[in-house]
TrEMBL record, chains A, B:
Keywords: Membrane, Oxidoreductase, Transmembrane, Transmembrane helix
Membrane spanning residue stretches: 12-34
GO biological process: fatty acid metabolic process
Protein name: 3-hydroxyacyl-CoA dehydrogenase
GO molecular function: L-gulonate 3-dehydrogenase activity; NAD+ binding
Stretches assigned to the 3-hydroxyacyl-CoA dehydrogenase C-terminal domain: 190-252
Family per similarity comment: Belongs to the 3-hydroxyacyl-CoA dehydrogenase family.
Pfam families linked to this entry: 3HCDH, 3HCDH_N
Length: 317, 317
């Protein structure tokens, strides 16, 4: 196992992002807001229009005052040179095991021995991606929630081989950035945020497919109930608060038959089933092309609002 | 089928709340904020300390300036007198079919022929509750999300017998109150918000039970990802926005194997299983008694924030 250390002065770390898609650019923007030296950030992608793509797309993820940093970002089309001085290599490439495991073997051969290796995968655990590495203890999942330059969650998921120092340095880095790294105890399919979101979406699809509500009605239901509720307190804390002195236990015991009936009756739609046409059409017709600027502003302000309330009432956690 | 009409001047309607529990008081508070004449609100409950209970508990649901209205609220211990002049009877009693069906038969015998009958049940459909009524077309589910004096959602769920005029008057009333009534097309176990929340909670329980995350970590995951996200846009709209030009369809096709794997691997815990001790203990130890004032303030401000962003960017819906 390699001994790994990362410069405590995070602002000056050399960071390489692999993949210039939505997540890659959003993470690049996040790093750019902290780096004193924008040229310490490198973005690698094989697309032939990489430079014009980044100059066009990256500013949208940044506040106006930081647009000036965009042209200073380094760009590269091949991995070896791009990672050779990196303290952090953060992969945001395609969800493809063959791609990722070949990539990490290449990265490992060219990056400094104390560089951190992070994969943004939403579903392929580090223990599958690290099989071609000489030192599999170096790889860890750092799964962001889209868009990561706004939403603070990072699921940190070590493989059984990941070293404790890699875990500690990864969590520490993101804490110092003011983000919310959450360390999962074990690898699991889809990690936690994904599993929770997908299981709710499955039921949502079922309810639209059954004609109980439309796509728009279902969204409106969430926006006026669980959404604002869970922006402040997750489901356990919220249901615990709703249960009075007896808390979650009293609440669940009180509605136990309904809860169990909902679980027994939950929809079992699958990818590729006949719901797809109906649901995709409704979504397109209801929403068309969406205003991401409004979304980003709303998400930022909601996060700020919750922090302000917690600060004011001094129950900050 | 009775012909039903409700005075358009909602502020002066006589409203009777049956049940002085958490939901009953929260709805009473909501009505009190609109009524010109607080004595038009009656709260019925068989508890012997009803008056002291209401005088003590109801103010907590109201802004300071409206505390003065609390002593003017009428109280009653039996249904017939309490409903005889009511335009709206809103039931917030125990989740017990025998109780509810006997109640509606009694209410129907004493209330005016054009009164609206609303049940706040979280799980017993109107078609089960209306079996002893002479005119089952009068009953409709109006399911709030706790606490309804803050969270705007009301799931309006007619039975197959409910008349169109009852549906229209119910939806119209809540729209004029600035709330968010959502009309479900068919009765279904647990309605929509409940089914979505319970299915996510089931997976959350599974993940804690399996030792993947703690209760606090799971809540923190939601508070920093889906919570703020869904406060602005529900899951369909959010995933559609996250999918780029191809929208929801492109996004799901892209991660289809992971989504299906999460669905196939979803937890199947049941009420009463061995997870209960572990999860309930963790929740108690993590949260103890919670500060509802902070929660209420946060929920209100998050809702306001989203409305302000939508107004400012003029994409108000």
């Amino acid at each position: 196992m390699t001994s790994i250390s990362v410069n405590r002065d995070d602002e000056d770390l050399r960071i390489t992002i692999i993949g210039a898609g939505t997540i890659g650019l959003s993470l690049a923007a996040l790093h750019l807001t902290y780096l004193k030296t924008p040229s310490n950030l490198t973005i690698v992608d094989v697309r032939p229009d990489l430079e014009s793509h980044i100059l066009r797309a990256l500013p949208a993820y940044l506040p106006q005052r930081l647009h000036i940093r965009v042209p200073q970002v380094k760009m590269a089309s091949s991995v070896p040179a791009a990672v050779k001085d990196s303290a952090i290599v953060q992969e945001c490439g395609p969800e493809n095991l063959a791609f990722k495991s070949a990539l990490w073997s290449e990265v490992e051969s060219h990056a400094p021995p104390d560089a951190l290796f992070w994969t943004s995968t939403s579903g392929i655990p580090a223990s599958h991606q690290n099989v071609q590495m000489r030192d599999p203890s170096r790889l860890i999942v750092v799964h962001p929630f889209n868009p990561p330059h706004i939403l603070p969650l990072l699921e940190v998921v070590p493989s059984p081989q990941t070293s404790q120092s890699v875990i500690d340095l990864t969590v520490g880095f993101w804490r110092r950035r003011g983000r919310q790294p959450v360390l999962l105890q074990k690898e699991i399919t889809g990690f936690v945020a994904g599993r929770l979101a997908w299981v709710l979406l499955r039921e949502a699809i079922h309810l639209v497919d059954q004609g109980i509500v439309t796509v728009e009605q279902l969204d409106r239901i969430i926006e006026n109930s669980m959404g604002p509720r869970w922006a402040y307190a997750g489901p356990f804390k919220s249901f615990h608060a709703g249960g009075g002195p007896g808390g979650l236990e009293a609440l669940l015991k009180n509605v136990s038959p309904t809860v169990q009936a909902c679980w027994d009756d939950a929809g079992k739609v699958n990818m590729g089933d006949s719901w797809e046409d109906k649901v995709f059409r409704q979504v397109r017709e209801s929403y068309g092309a969406l205003d991401l600027e409004e979304r980003d502003l709303a998400n930022r302000k909601v996060l700020q609002t919750v922090q302000e309330v917690k600060r004011e009432t001094k129950v900050q956690d």
